[in-house]
Amino acid sequence: MLYNIAEGKVYKGTSTYSGDIVMNIKDGKIYKNTSTYSGDVIATIRDGKVFTGTSSYSGDIAFSIKGDVTIEEFVAIWYTIKYIY
Predict the structure, then answer these.
(1) What is the mean pLDDT of residues 65-79?
(2) How far is CA 30 from CA 18, 25, 52, in A?
(3) Is there a contact between 4 and 14 (Cβ–Cβ < 8 Å)?
(4) Least crowded by CB within 10 Å, which of 18, 28, 76, 78?
(5) 34 half-sphere exposure, CB direction, 13 A CA radius
(6) Which sign, positive or negative, has the C-alpha torsion 8, 38, 19, 49?
(7) For the segment 8-45, what is each residue's pLDDT rounded down to a tens digit?
(8) Do 44 and 50 touch, CB atoms closer than 8 A?
(9) Organism's domain of life (predicted)?
(10) In terms of pTM, does the model score above 0.85?
(11) How many CB atoms lie within 10 A of CB 42?
(12) In sequence order, which residues have a C-beta less than 8 Å from that of residue 79 and are 6 or more positions away?
């Protein structure tokens, strides 16, 4: 298992230890680790598009998702786009 997801937090492996949080997904934003500070935004999710950082500029679209996905599916897509594709 690559990640464990609980309450919008994505943990390494099967962990639920706060020190193992890779990202925090909250209110359409993906933050580094446990942060919810605007300077730690990795990506913004809006209208099926995932933008780099806090941007909503079309040139900063990392990828788009058609239709609804669960948080688990989103994390799998994120991992694939970021680390494999």
Answers:
(1) 94
(2) 16, 5, 10
(3) yes
(4) 18
(5) 6
(6) positive
(7) 999 999 999 999 999 999 999 999 999 999 999 999 99
(8) yes
(9) Bacteria
(10) yes
(11) 21
(12) 2, 3
**Structure token digits, residue 82:** 């970021």
Of 36, 39, 31, residue with least CA distance to 78: 31
With beta carbons less than 8 A apart as the criterion, state whether 26 and 36 touch: yes
Q: Which two tokens stand for residue 77?
A: 């897509």
The burial class, CB within 10 Å (0-12 / 13-18 / 19+), for 13 is: exposed
Could you give the CA distance from residue 3 to residue 27 in angstroms, rounded to a whole number? 20
